[in-house]
Automatic annotation (TrEMBL), chains A, B:
One matching Pfam family: FAD_binding_4
Names of the cofactor(s): FAD
Protein name stated in the entry: D-lactate dehydrogenase (cytochrome)
Organism the protein comes from: Bhargavaea ullalensis
GO molecular function: D-lactate dehydrogenase (cytochrome) activity
Entry superkingdom: Bacteria
EC numbers: 1.1.2.4
Family indicated by similarity: Belongs to the FAD-binding oxidoreductase/transferase type 4 family.
Keywords: FAD, Flavoprotein, Oxidoreductase, Transit peptide
């Protein structure tokens, strides 16, 4: 952006928001020029801190007038460069819109502003005996989680972010403020915008309010760790548990190299074996029967040892250890950056996919552990890369491509939960085929000037033009 | 359509499909000129019977060339005029595309053609110990159920049609054949087209293949009938059951006038009282605990009598009776047509909404019963109308408007599961506000010539034009 333009825009934004909520400060901009990934940084021209949907609408209209991008920003915990403003522009930081607006206890609904974090919401909900189910590990904002269709450990039972969104208030590229849903548990009215906007990564609009589904905390919860001789055996046990129809609440795979990192980082003494971390929610009688059945199944698959945690404290230690795995890898490998693969395959293809992934990592001589939300067929290779070593970076790229190709060849997806951002763009045509033209047509219809987080999800250049 | 045009189109279609699969026969056209609703009939110009997606694509291209509409048709069991070709055109009947193509047992997925019916699919799935959860009552086709986002009695536990669709093969208005999803249980790749196309009522494209989620038949099933002194007491019991976190599989309300019809039509001797029909799925121990808890709750709400059906036969009688309720009303009132309201409200507003509905029916002196999928906040008034009595028709319209206004004032929806068709169009702006512009923009982007089932869902005239 030209300096003169920036000056005018800055003045107009300050008129709108006051001096204190418009920043050109280098440090503030730097904080908004990266996420938690290995993707290169790029600073926004300005950062603004709106407090209302109306302000967001006016910011978008100013951006539209000036023809520069707007990039919605939660906490920057995304993993594929979603919030990095590679075409410059205005970053809209939602940290001042962080109120839990309403808990509708008997409707199992909560209305929140986009800057509310997952843990903040759960703290509030606990007072009502309720919880919000989606748990991607990071304490992300709910606006960001909706924008990327986050999921994580609990989606095998409760579903992904898209399944929890009952309504969104969205500021569109023309400044209009719309609602994508209602408070009804189901609807067959109009075209379904909720699902389309969830996962749109800021490319269709900015979320200014979310109405989300919440759940009652179950009567009983039990967690377990089960160690297996091989990753294959662990994965096959998961498939059998699902086929038995046991409504498991979480089932996470952690391979041997990852278990080492877990023990080192969290001070636990868990067996260094391919391990399933499991959780069950239900009534006391049903839970006992589920657990008994599950124990039989894992033993049939060669489970060497299963340890239960029925007390809250033990469960918390177990899940903390699992959740801190990414940070364990980061702290264990100073100077290296994390690169994470994220494919999801049909569950019948999971054992083969994990096997293929392990072989590929070993063959390329990379440092990496495999972990995953295996109940959904979604797994990650956490790679620790020396970005100053071009050969290693090349190998990591090669690995990612091999993993993605394997998944796409089996009707899977290149990203189960991290989203596209810029990192998964190159696979969009391969995955979606001619459907990509429909996606581009929708983007162009809703954002004809391409100002909403441009260059993310898919290459939204106008079809047939070089714009 | 001009006679000469029709002649040319007919010839081209016969060239494509052969004489036997293109019909101008009056009787065949009449069968495709109505649905199960009270909406006025209108015959299509031609009816075609394709066997492949490629043929559907070529039919759409011929329609595009000629500039005439295409209307996808399953079995005509819709309730808001969805398949009635008010602008004429080609009706695409999917009855020859009725194969279950693949059962992916360990992925809990099934791939079907759009003309497969719900009961046909369940018959096939039973061999694998699996079932398809969505049950709208009518034995509709799966293509039609996806087009209208059908739901019904089981969605309180398993979700609506949209929740079951993993992938659709769709022929778009430009003849291209796309896939809207993949076989992965979750994905954060691309824009989410699955959810957008489900419920689009043929206005965005024709479905030529569906990949659907299926479930394992649960270890145990139990059903119950619970009679209450008032509708309010029954509804309040449902709210309490949900708040207790009991994972109920079905919970249906049937009011007194409807219970009379049930007994008369099905030869049952159930108490003529406001009644809840309940079903529980689970493991044996969990089920016993759920049922015990449920029994306590309904008694706290004044339940006069609860009868359990644990045997398959008794359960079948119970659900047959419930499902045949609409037909019971029809057979009980010869010469009258059925008109059904279909609002859905937040569960906290349900008791008030049902109360308001009963009062309005009585005040207007109409014949009608209230029934509903009350676990979702969705209820119907089944009205039996004498279409030759303009005053009565006027009163029915007045009632429908009052019911819809009540729901929309409480952030509900004008249609929980029947869809918009033409019957609910007049409420679209009131329900969706400025979001309707986004819906129109999407329709225009994907079907610029407005040939896909035009005039349905919302008035898709181009914005700002009189076209």
């Amino acid at each position: 952006m030209m300096t003169a333009d920036r000056k005018t825009l800055e003045e107009k934004l300050k008129e709108l928001l006051g001096d204190g909520r418009v920043s050109l400060n280098e440090t503030v901009r730097a904080l908004h020029g990266r996420d938690e990934s290995y993707h290169a940084e790029r600073l926004p021209d300005l950062v603004v801190f709106p407090e209302t949907a109306q302000e967001v609408s006016e910011i978008v209209l100013l951006a539209k007038e000036t023809g520069i991008p707007v990039i919605p920003f939660g906490l920057g915990s995304s993993l594929e460069g979603h919030v990095i403003p590679y075409s410059g522009g205005i970053t809209i930081d939602f940290s001042l819109m962080n109120q839990v607006l309403e808990v509708r206890e008997s409707d199992f609904l909560v209305r929140v502003q986009p800057g509310v974090t997952r843990s903040q919401l759960n703290k509030e909900l606990k007072k009502y005996g309720l919880f919000f189910s989606v748990d991607p590990g990071a304490d992300a904002t709910l606006g960001g989680m909706a924008a990327t269709n986050a999921s994580g450990t609990t989606s095998v039972k409760y579903g992904v972010m898209r399944d929890q969104v009952r309504d969104l208030e969205v500021v569109l590229a023309d400044g209009s403020i719309i609602h994508t849903g209602s408070l009804a548990a189901k609807s067959a009215s109009g075209l379904h915008l909720n699902g389309l906007f969830v996962g749109s990564e800021g490319t269709l609009g900015c979320f200014t309010e979310l109405t989300l589904r919440v759940y009652g905390i179950s009567e009983e919860t039990a967690a377990a760790r089960a160690s297996f001789p091989t990753v294959d055996a662990a994965v096959e046990a998961v498939v059998s548990i699902l086929q038995a129809g046991i409504p498991i609440a979480r089932v996470e795979l952690v391979d041997e190299p990852s278990m080492e990192q877990v023990n080192r980082h969290s001070g636990t003494g868990y067996p260094v074996r391919p391990t399933l971390f499991l959780e069950f929610h239900g009534n006391s009688a049903g839970l006992r029967q589920d657990i008994g059945f599950c124990e039989e199944i894992v033993k049939e698959h060669g489970c060497e040892r299963i340890d239960f945690e029925t007390e809250t404290e033990g469960r918390n230690v177990l899940w903390e250890a699992r959740h801190n795995l990414a940070y364990a890898f980061i702290h264990g490998h100073p100077g290296r950056k994390m690169m994470v693969t994220d494919v999801c395959v049909p569950i019948s293809e999971l054992a083969g996919a994990v096997h293929h992934a392990r072989e590929a990592v070993d063959r390329l001589g990379l440092i990496g552990g495999i972990t995953g939300h295996v109940g959904d067929g979604n797994f990650h290779i956490i790679l620790m890369i020396d970005l100053n070593n071009p050969e290693e970076v090349g190998k990591a790229d090669q690995l990612n491509e091999a993993i993605v190709s394997y998944a796409l060849d089996r009707s899977g997806t290149c990203t189960g939960e991290h989203g596209v951002g810029i990192g998964k763009q190159k696979y969009q045509e391969q995955e979606h085929g001619p459907a990509i033209h429909a996606m581009r047509a929708i983007k162009q219809a809703l954002d004809p000037e391409n100002i909403m987080n441009p260059g993310k999800v898919i290459d939204f250049k106008q079809e047939g033009s070089e714009k």
